[in-house]
Every structure is written in structure tokens, then in C-alpha cells.
Amino acid sequence: EIVLTQSPDFQSVTPKEKVTITCRASQSIGSSLHWYQQKPDQSPKLLIKYASQSFSGVPSRFSGSGSGTDFTLTINSLEAEDAAIYYCHQSSSFPHTFGQGTRLEIK
Amino acid sequence: QLQLQGSGPGLVKPSETLSLTCSVPGGSISRTNYYWGWIRQPPGKGLEWIGSIYYSGSTYYNPSLKSRVTISVDTSKNQFSLKLSSVTAADTAVYYCARQVDEGYYFDYWGQGTLVIVSS
Prior knowledge:
The structure holds two protein chains of two kinds.
Chain A: E1 4-7, E2 10-13, E3 19-25, E4 33-38, E5 45-49, E6 53-54, E7 62-67, E8 70-75, E9 84-90, E10 97-98, E11 102-106
Parallel strand pairs in A: 2-11
Antiparallel strand pairs in A: 1-3, 3-8, 4-5, 4-9, 5-6, 7-8, 9-10, 9-11
Chain B: E1 5-7, E2 11-12, E3 18-23, E4 34-41, E5 48-54, E6 59-61, E7 69-74, E8 79-84, E9 93-101, E10 107-110, E11 114-118
Parallel strand pairs in B: 2-11
Antiparallel strand pairs in B: 1-3, 3-8, 4-5, 4-9, 5-6, 7-8, 9-10, 9-11
């Protein structure tokens, strides 16, 4: 089973800051890495597919990069509505697995 | 935007079988290029993929749950279902249904989630 490790677990940031969340896979997964946003009491929503492709309707301040074992989700010019937990997900091999999540707090 | 609507009992007794259904109003579950999956999230914890099914009935499951899980599809009702047998308190979670794109296997649309508590 591929283990995904996200860092940090928690980050407190101010609006308009730039945020970087990383996801490291226990073995190479190519670009089969996707990012989701989960706001309190809501279901997860797809942000980024295939490491760097934005999903339809996602604000342009969200971007992704990486391949192999190291991936990054970047949020430029953070907004208050971005307070959420962010998860990475690998679909390179079964079973599909998720990272433990990164909670983003807006000061 | 595609909607998925999960439903089922919110309380299940230990050792019994958890049963949930997901309906896809306004969308066809028989479309090619998509799987239909179940993911769960224990209170305050992360996400765990349970398994997925194609409209043809082809399934794949998380090995950690495979011995207890059955996912089925009913194309005539445009819905798919999850059964998890011999539940314990560790199965208490919000259960999400979601559409899974078969090119890439990412989940592009999710249902609202159903909280299932396992308790006597």
C-alpha cells in the first residue's frame, strides 16, 4: 500500500499570504496524484487532478505541481473562504489512498 | 453539476450489516468512463477508500475491508449500494458516495455524506 504523508498537519495563515502544502508518496506514483478541499461539515471537493491540472470551476489561485514522489499544492493570495482541510489522493495503485490531511486556519 | 444522494440508516447495531444506497438524479449511472465509489471518514479523521463499481458490475475493493464489503449497482434505478457486514464501533464514520473517472481514477463529484453510528 502506498502511504501519502502531508506536511504540515496544520498551518495558520493570514489572508493574501501564499501557502504551500506538500504530499510525499512512499513510492513513485507518476502524476497520479489529486488534491481535494474539505470545508467544515461538507464533502470533499476536487481541486487538482493529475498533480497539476485544475478541475473545472476551481479558482486560479489554486495550483499543483510535482511528479514521482513529491507533490505540492499552492494557494496564492489566500482568501478567508480557503479555510479547510486539504487532502492528497493517489490512484497509481490499489488500494487508493489519501494523505492524512492538512488543516488550514485563516487568522 | 452532478448530484449524488446517499441514504440509509444512521444507526446500526454491532455485528449487523450496514447498508447504504447512492442515487444519481439527473445523471446516468450507465455512462461509460466512470466508476462509482464509496469512501468513509471516521469522526475527526481522514479519508479511506472502501471500493468502487462500474455500471457493468465490475468491482474492486480495499483489501483491508474486502472480506466484509459488497458493492452493487442497479442501473434500472440509477443507483449503487454498499453493504458492510459484521460492523463494530470502528466502522462509525461518514460514508460518502462519489463518481470516479476511469481515466485517472480521481473522484470528481461527491455526495453529501451519511453519518453511520455503530452502537447497541
